[in-house]
Amino acid sequence: MPLSPVSAGICSDFNGACDQEVDFTGVAGSCSISSIQGQTWPFQNASPINFPLPGNTKIKLASGLSAGVQYQYSVSCCTTEAATHHVTIVVSMEREAEHRKAS
């Protein structure tokens, strides 16, 4: 069963689970999310991710990321002080419930 999408402000840090869809909010005009050299890219989509998104494009967190770790990325449309953001990977309650059911 797929996880419910997580809603995240484009200029905010957020928490999400591996393979979870991300719905970025607050994007006005054009903007891009891009990788930071030396940092693990936390999305399944290739860097950069350009907004507005074409058609039915979905943004998803990558699989295989470590729970409790913060993964950084850069956002072009945030102020310079707020241009670097991160997602903290969590084990979702939905996944935990699925795991308990399977055991």
Tell me about this structure.
- The protein is mostly beta strands and 103 residues long.
- It has a single domain, classed as Immunoglobulin-like (Sandwich), CATH 2.60.40.
- It has 1 helix and 8 strands.
- The strands form 2 sheets. A 5-stranded mixed beta sheet has the order 2-8-7-4-5, with no helix packed on it. A 3-stranded mixed beta sheet has the order 1-3-6, with no helix packed on it.
- Strand 7 and strand 8 form a beta hairpin.
- The longest helix is centred in the last third of the chain and has 10 residues.
Keywords summarizing the entry:
five-stranded mixed beta sheet; mainly beta; three-stranded mixed beta sheet; 8 strands; Immunoglobulin-like; 103 residues
- Count every helix, treating DSSP H or I runs of 4 or more residues as helices: 1
CATH architecture identity: Sandwich
By secondary-structure content and strand pairing, the structural class works out as mainly beta
| CATH secondary-structure class | Mainly Beta
Number of E-type strands:
8
* Unreliable segments of 5+ consecutive residues: none
Helix proportion: under 10%
Strand order of the largest sheet: 2-8-7-4-5
Rounded to an integer in angstroms, the radius of gyration calculated over CA atoms is 14 Å
Principal-axes geometry comes out as: globular
CATH fold naming: Immunoglobulin-like
Question: Short description, anyone?
Answer:
This protein is mainly beta and 103 residues long. The protein has one helix spanning 93-102, and strands spanning 6-9, 14-16, 21-25, 31-34, 49-51, 59-60, 70-75, 84-89.
